[in-house]
Automatic annotation (TrEMBL):
Basic and acidic residues bias: start-end ranges: 178-189
Domain Zinc finger DksA/TraR C4-type: residue ranges: 92-120
Database matches in SUPFAM superfamilies: DnaK suppressor protein DksA, alpha-hairpin domain (SSF109635), Glucocorticoid receptor-like (DNA-binding domain) (SSF57716)
Region (Disordered), start-end ranges: 28-57, 167-189
The protein's name in its UniProt record: TraR/DksA C4-type zinc finger protein
Any matching Pfam family: zf-dskA_traR
Zinc finger (dksA C4-type): 97-121
Annotated organism of origin: Paenibacillus lacisoli
Length: 189
């Protein structure tokens, strides 16, 4: 810790304590909402039934709930890191890279006061390649699915139906008038 001056340490400690208070306030303010996250969706939404008039409403609730859980998990991890950094200050190991033993530059500590590593020794963040279990049972859509597939297969959707029918004419088009004239002519012969 000798590479940091007393004023630098005080500045960093103030930043850490302030962030710790913000995070603790988040969990206190959201304590009631956070307790609802452990309940069933029906209980937390106040709905009498999980089946609603709009199925998308339940999807929105599920998304919001998942997002809130992820945010809380992330903020909880950050609070743990802040507490660990404050403990390192007490122990006299703050500002020293946990991997290499090198001094962490003050500028980096200002940017991320709870960091344990120099830039060069920061562990790689693992990005999960886990996919939803539903993908194991899903079948892939047909090749060229979508509008192009509709045109190539020779089928049409609702949007194309009118154009296709209109080719044969309507009661108001000249084509239908000509067909009526031919029909009348053939009947009169």
């Amino acid at each position: 810790m000798n590479h940091l001056t007393e004023s630098q340490l005080q500045e960093l400690k103030h930043m850490l304590v302030e962030r710790k208070q913000e995070l603790e306030r988040h969990f206190e303010v959201n304590d009631e909402e956070n307790s609802l996250l452990g309940e069933s969706e029906r209980m937390s939404t106040g709905e009498l039934s999980a089946v609603d008039n709009h199925p998308a409403d339940l999807g929105t609730e599920t998304f919001e709930r998942g997002r809130d859980l992820a945010i809380n998990e992330s903020l909880s991890e950050e609070l743990d890191q802040v507490n660990a950094a404050l403990q390192r200050m007490e122990d006299g190991t703050y500002g020293i890279c946990q991997k290499s033993g090198e001094e962490i530059p003050f500028e980096r500590l200002q940017a991320i006061p709870f960091t344990e590593y120099t830039i060069e020794n920061t562990p790689e963040r693992e990005i999960s390649n886990d996919r939803p279990v539903e993908e194991e049972v899903m079948t892939l859509p047909p090749k060229g699915a979508g509008e192009v597939r509709q045109q190539h297969v020779g089928r049409f959707d609702d949007a194309d139906a009118w154009e296709t029918v209109e080719e044969y004419g309507t009661s108001n088009t000249p084509a239908m008038a000509a067909k009526r004239d031919v029909k009348d002519y053939n009947e009169n012969m």
